Amino acid sequence: MERYYQEEIECASPERIKEIQDEKLVKQVRHVWENVAYYRKKMEEKGVTPEDIRSRDDLYKLPFLSKADLREAYPYGLMGAPLKDCVRIQSTSGTTGKRVVAFYTKEDIDLWEECCARAIVAAGGSDEDVCQVSYGYGLFTGGPGLNGGSHKVGCLTIPTSSGNTDRQIMFIMDLKATILCCTPSYAAYLGERMKEMGLGPDDIPLKAGIFGAEAWSEEMRRDIEKTMGIKAYDIYGLTELSGPGVAFECSAQGGMHINEDHFIAEIIDPDTEEVLPAGSQGELVFTSIDKKAFPLLRYRTRDICTLTTEKCSCGRTFVRMAKPKGRSDDMLIIRGVNVFPSQIETVLINHGYAANYQIIVGRVNNTDTLDVHVEMTPEMFADNVGDIELKQKELMDGLKSMLGIKAKVSLVAPKSIERSEGKAVRVIDNRKL
Amino acid sequence: MSIKQISVFLENKPGKLNRMTQVLSDGGIGIRALSVAETKDFGIARLIVDDALEATNVLKDADFVASLTPVLSYVISDEVGGLNNLLKVFTEANVNLEYMYSSLGGKATGQAYMIFRVSDTKAAEAALAAKGLRCLTQEEISEI
Residue A432 — very low, low, confident or very high, per pLDDT cuts 50/70/90? Predict the structure, then answer.
């Protein structure tokens, strides 16, 4: 029996959702026009006024916002509410450049936590659950978002934050945690550690995991589910839009439902910026129609994915987004070919390797090189050089057919690739571009 | 009886073999024989030790991937023709060798120990026994 946090919204008819979106969008555009000079200028340059936006169908008229805009407007340029109403900031890790700082009013935090609560209930959570939040707390949105969602649902919340793996496991086992929230790479690491400690799926009290904040493959999901004996749910979000919970997975595990009463999603062609018809693959663009302190309109996420409006077996009517193939930031262009780390991960897991890998990109004589470091496992080890080389070659062939370009595979010692407690560092690009 | 050889995965980088010997040394494990098969990227160290089970444990605790492989060990006299005489028996018994390496006789001078990996350990052992060759036991190897 599927359970919902807010059934009347989550299962509203598409017509009702459009009504909500139309009404909120019109108000939000007016709010931005009056409060965010940076965006107003963009609208004026495009010759658009709030009067031009009468419904969701007029969304295409509005200018886009990109990460470059966020950097330019840093720190206060996109703040949409007076300082006295803003109560919190959250920030990105800043690994891809200048940090993004996002603001929240009390109501903004409330709606964000509500989104996370929907995700927890969709993963089977209720006030009978013990929910361990192993996302980092602090500037990163993962910890605070799921923590708030867990409170709203009424779970007993364990705010372990990230790190100290053995303590994490102690809490899971001693307090009989039933739901785990963290990045998928950290979940895989926790699973690996528990296995080493002799804890099998039947010993581990967890029943569900809510894993997000980085790209992960379907194969990695199955791996984690098997190791811990849980059902693993994906969750999607961006600091720019609030944090985790912009979209979440239900029991059908067939894409993530976008919280459409708060966000309008579009898919565009990243090159021409044209809106693409339903079902097309392209860049995901979000318009935040409720948030007041950081009200982004048509924000380009750089995530490449598809949307589907097909009916979902869980009963929710919210449009679903496919797992992004990867953020276009994560996409590597190697010898002119687009390569996503998640594609490499898929091949590795299909060949029986762990999801611990590192991609080293280099350039030798003006040609890009792709070297995938994979940890040796007891399962694939043999006393015979020829047998190991054969497996290495099979893996290289698998990568070649997935990526279309040749990749070298280097087998490295177990545990030699650094384990991450937050977002995993998968790619080292040594090219001086 | 075959004896247990430990095979260990090593990256082909400076210091990796030394790290393994350090771990074994710290674990109080004595090495009786050692050979390394190498490729450009990685190698497999093959070891005969005095305590195979304990060696496997200390290696695993130190995050090495290691496995046990059955091998046969025979004593030869450390003189011209010693190995040749032994291999003649292998040929007569039609035993195919995958790889082999040697170890000097430790405290017993004038002897050497040969370690053989064959495709079918049991069949080879029986065929060689029929020719009058007795292989060393785990205990005998440990005591060298």
Answer: low
Check: pTM over 0.80? Answer yes or no. Answer: no
Distances (CA, A) of A335 to A224, A254, A325, A370, A403: 33, 33, 19, 9, 11
Which residue from B58, B51, B65, B53 is spatially nearest to B21, judged by alpha carbons? B58
| CA gap A28, A26 in Å, rounded | 6
The answer to whether residues A130 and A262 belong to one domain is: yes
Query: ipTM more than 0.90?
Result: no
The pair of structure tokens assigned to A278 is 């339903």
Between chains, do B67 and A378 touch, taking CB under 8 Å as contact? yes
Optimal mutation site among B8, B20, B42, interface A, most CBs of chain A within 10 A: B42
Length of chain A, in residues? 433
Residues of A in contact with B65 (CB under 8 A): 376-378, 381, 413-414
Given phi > 0 = left and psi -120 to 50 = alpha, else beta, which region is A164? left
- From B104, B120, B118, select the one nearest B34 (Cα to Cα): B104
Q: Give residue-wise pLDDT tens across range B83-127.
A: 998 899 888 888 889 999 988 766 666 788 889 999 889 888 988
The parent domain of residue A291 ranges over: 1-327
Which structural domains are found in chain B, ordered by start?
Answer: 3-69 (3.30.2130.10), 72-143 (3.30.70.260)
Q: How far apart are alpha carbons B10 and B45 in whole angstroms?
A: 7
- Are A349 and A219 in contact by the 8 Å Cβ rule? The answer is yes
Q: Which of A311, A327, A343 is a domain's end point?
A: A327
With beta carbons under 8 A apart, name residues in chain A contacting B44: 383-385, 388
pLDDT at A97 over 60: no
**Residue A300 shares a structural domain with residue A340:** no
What percentage of chain A's residues is helix, strand, coil (to nearest 5)? 35, 25, 40
Highest mean pLDDT among A104-108, A298-302, B110-114, B132-136: A104-108
Given an 8 Å threshold on Cβ–Cβ distance, is A411 in contact with B42? yes
Give the residue from chain B lying closest to A417, CA to CA: B63
Query: A136 near A239, Cβ under 8 Å?
Result: no
- Report pLDDT digits (tens) over A176-220: 999 999 988 889 989 989 999 999 999 999 999 999 987 788 888
Q: What percent of chain A has pLDDT over 70?
A: 97
Q: How far apart are CA A135 and CA A186, in angstroms?
A: 9
CATH number at residue A393: 3.30.300.30
